[in-house]
Design brief:
alpha+beta, Jelly Rolls, 4-stranded antiparallel β-sheet, 14 strands, 29% helix
Length: 380
């Protein structure tokens, strides 16, 4: 049985949205919504600092994240770039990647076809609505509309991507060029992720330059496992909002995998928590925003940090982004690298796996870094 057939959702009456809100924000806006429903209004404590520049918890200027030039990473300046990457992962948990080798056409096509998917008639999008977090294709809103007490001002399309031949035929067939554009994008971001992880593991001192093999205890070869690892692509759509101060596109959270490669359009919205302040990330055309996930924080034994981030919405422009989340195969265990554990740096996280994460989010409303905190053995 293929990976796809093993996970494919069996559609039924239970998958029919039980309220108008579960049909998504796009549908509400298309139907002429003029006020934010109570279901989308976040508590004052969660949103009060979103745009209030007098609030001490909000920086007054946009944040220029560290910029890593991918071309330099592959050239004679590799050692210096590795150090810059290490600093970014320790201090920010984020960096922007330029000159990454993925063509502007591939990027443009991905953003364009994602936008056209969200502009399809609701009946076409609704084919992929399911509450099954393991589904190959999942269209929905918020994080988990069956558990969230407050919904996010966001609609999403989630696609499992690796191995691509198993999943591609299950992806949306409309727009007609969706599979081709998204498939090409998935392949190229997978290659880019693996190249970045080689550099990140090298920056941690776990492997030496140009060596594929690790010499870790118990044969834990992370690079080999990541080649066969999970990849989930999430296209996000944040419609214009009539009362943006009342809601959030996404609340504060961290990502669960190793690395997320985020492609965003030129509309501001992404904020990260830096030095205990919320700061807006300045978009760079055709660049990727790269962020450390919870599993990389575990693997690095807390040296590299997954950082809280959130998304603001606005009343003027809709916003699109495509997040490519990468990690180990779903049935593999994530544990701190033995090379980063000693008497001075004891093991700080319990071993975990993807099923533990899925069980957690299936029964609990996901908030901030709650799942990662549940795996901590000691403070970092």
């Amino acid at each position: 049985m293929s990976h796809a057939n093993a996970i494919t959702q069996q559609w039924g009456e239970d998958d029919t949205p039980k309220s108008q809100y579960e049909k998504g924000v796009k549908q509400l806006i298309d139907n002429g919504l003029k006020k934010v429903p109570k279901k989308y209004i976040f508590p004052e404590s969660d949103r009060s600092a979103a745009r209030n520049t007098e609030d001490p918890n909000v920086a007054k200027q946009n944040l220029q994240l560290p910029i890593i030039d991918f071309a330099d990473l592959l050239g004679p300046c590799r050692t210096q770039v590795l150090q810059s990457m290490a600093n970014a992962c320790e201090e920010y948990g984020f960096f922007q990647l330029v000159n990454h080798g993925i063509s502007n056409d591939v990027i443009k096509n991905m953003l364009d076809v994602s936008g056209r998917f969200f502009n399809l008639q609701f009946e076409e999008r609704a084919k992929y609505i399911t509450s099954d977090v393991k589904a190959v294709v999942r269209y929905g809103t918020s994080f988990n509309q069956t558990k969230d007490t407050v919904y996010c001002w966001r609609d999403f399309l989630k696609l499992l991507c690796n191995p691509l031949p198993d999943y591609l035929s299950h992806w949306p067939s409309s727009p007609v060029d969706f599979r081709q554009a998204a498939g090409t994008y998935a392949e190229e971001t997978k290659y880019l992720f693996l190249t970045l992880m080689q550099a990140i593991i090298e920056s941690l001192g776990i492997i030496e330059a140009n060596k594929e093999k690790e010499t870790e205890e118990n044969g834990y070869n992370i690079l080999k496992d990541l080649k066969d690892g999970s990849q989930m692509m999430i296209s996000n759509f944040y419609p214009q909002c009539p009362e943006p101060n009342l809601t959030l596109g996404m609340p504060p959270h961290s990502d669960y995998g190793f690395l997320t490669l985020l492609l965003q359009d030129e509309v501001e919205g992404l904020q990260i928590q830096f030095q205990e302040k919320w700061v807006t990330v300045q978009p760079i055309p055709n660049a990727f925003v790269i962020n450390v996930g919870d599993h990389l924080e575990i693997y690095s034994n807390g040296k590299y940090k997954s950082v809280l981030h959130r998304v603001l919405v606005n009343s003027v422009k809709s916003r699109r982004s495509v997040a490519s989340l990468h990690g180990l195969p779903f049935n593999h265990t994530v544990r701190p690298s033995p090379k980063l554990i000693d008497e001075v740096n004891p093991k700080r996280y319990a071993d975990t796996d993807f099923n533990s994460f899925l069980s957690y989010i299936s029964t609990t409303e996901l908030k901030r870094k709650d799942f990662l905190d549940s795996r901590r053995l000691t403070s970092t």
